[in-house]
Predict the structure.
Amino acid sequence: MIRTEEMLLNMGPQHPSTHGVFRIILKIDGETIIEAKPVIGYLHRGTEKLAEDLQYTQIIPYTDRLDYISAMTNNYVLCHAVETMMGLEIPDRAEYLRVIAMELGRIVSHLVSWGTYLLDLGATTPFLYAFREREAIINLINELCGARLTFNYMRVGGVKWDAPEGWIEKVRDFIPYMREQLAGYHDLVSGNEIFLSRVKGVGKYTKEEAIQYSLSGPTLRCTGVKWDLRKDEPYSIYNRFDFDVVTRETGDCLSRYEVRLEEIEQSLRIVEQAVEQFPAEGEILAKVPKIIKAPKGEAFVRIESPRGEIGCYIASDGKKEPYRLKFRRPSFYNLQILPKLLKGENIANLIAILGAIDIVLGEVDG
Amino acid sequence: MLGLFKGLKYTLNQLTKEKVTYDYPNKPLPLPDRFRGIQKFYPEKCIVCNQCANICPTDCIQLTGKKHPDPTKKGKIIDTYDINFEICILCDLCTEVCPTEAIIMTNNFELAEYSRDMLFKNLEWLDENDENIRQVNKA
């Protein structure tokens, strides 16, 4: 009889597959994980505390640095919260620009998630294709707001820049190209037998567990819960677009992968309709005072980011800075289920499970 | 095995496609006009209103003014103007609030230096940074 000993293994904080500075302390028996303990906080910058000393416009660049893969939704949630408190009405043209920018951001985010997930599993090629398409979108966004990642594009009451000349046409031309590439992605990976054997049935959880852990976004919808804030609590102008909420039933890594890829298709549908309905002219900024002061009181808004529900809570005492600001950061909540999923798993599956949750450490640590 | 061959077919199809990489740094990167790079400063336009220093989210701008040398004119002129690029996040808020467009963005982004002190840029340096200036500054 061979006797084995338990062993502690540190994964991270510097590890390519943790997508940032994230550490997991693993208690392993041979190759089986007995216990996993995530350690977070290596990228904590105290955004919420810093915001208490900043005017609302000054906080916007800080939100870019939370979920830096899709900063547009973060920009929006803060502006949306302040606008809700002030009761502002946003011009149509600004709303369309916001929706186009946010949905392009969603596509970028899912492309990065798709590419890096397969890179983690050992397939290098898809990553390059994903980043090729991402580059095309990022160049579009760069033309719109002058930055590739840290957009700082939205303002309380609208957006900073109008669309440059010919930009809407460029977005329109991009949609069929992206659809074609998306079909190629399915050819390249979705039917690949090696990939399927790595992810099918791995990291499974049920509908009830997902709700208990307050998961959201693709990590929730992969279990069959039809919950998408763009549909269920429409904000901005999402009620004007026709799109489907993508769900899967199994709740394993493969279903999360499929949900994300299909959401790219749905985002393309929204962008297509938004470009079609785009108002020929109009204001891009509502009438707002030069120094923005949210009225006394509090507000909580939530929207659908690529990773799940991102929420923003503001308590204001009527000054130009918030009294307290809090972000509900979806990556942080989605990560909570990780120790449960890892228990009893093989070490090789750790990467597959963590990658499928799709966290961004800037957002986990806040 | 079918799935593997389907994937291989997609990869082989890409062989004939155009290259997507840039020949940087041999050729400059193509950047749009709105790109937010290192600021250019016009000392003669500045009215020392302090708005840029006040709006800066990271407090990286420091400026001082002095009395106008011509006693018949009111107001101040700029004396020193420093931006600390160790903490500047190029968020564009300083150019957004500037009433006279004395500070504007350029397309230059190469900030790498051998020492941290070199990232502390003064008025003269920012004045000389006058290539690839952004044409349209207000929406």
About this structure: The longest strand of chain A covers residues 297-305. The mean pLDDT of chain A is 91.
